[in-house]
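Input chain follows. Return structure tokens only.
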Amino acid sequence: MIAILPPNRFFKPIPMKSFFTLLFAATSVFAATPNVGLVDEQEIFKKYAKAADLQAEIRKSEESAQASVNERVKAIEVLQTELQAIDKRGQDPMLSENGKRAVGAEFQQKNATFQQRRGDLQNFVAEARNAIQQRVGEMNKQILADARVQAEKVAKTKGLNLIIGKASVLFSDASLDVTEDVIKELNVTYKATAPVGVPAAPPAAPVTPAPAPAPAPAPAAGDQPAAK
């Protein structure tokens, strides 16, 4: 699940000389309790059309990267099978010295290709994973920025002084929830600004990190020729 984490809050000890000042100030604070609203961040990611569109794009990138990884793994497995066959030929007791040298050279060349492909695969997986994570982070920032704008609009309409994320609240009355109001404003604004002819995607489940691709096959037995 992709969640918008609440900002960290740092508390500092209150000096004793300030205690009575705060005590008297508390009277006026409670006398003017702010009107508060709550927003469920997870619901925004589920029901905001822009979030659904961005998540769908990221999911396509994940699927494309995984397909490429699968193809590369298959190619490496073919090389591994070929290496094993060469290694087996090199162990033939009837092989002449010249034959052993030829098989050894063939093994070395094939093994170099095998190792190169394995390294390329590992680099590709790392780059693809980083790219996906970066896009997810950018999406979170976009959705959070949009939500803040619309939350402010809802707050003014309802006369609220404060709207906070539901994730940081232990308990709240249902009457304080303005999530649907914020989502409505988000979708109205997005529909008005979305490219013409490109319908908004239906609400979708949040993007989750793609499972790590299976590791590249282990090197064939013996990276060096079986016989020289």
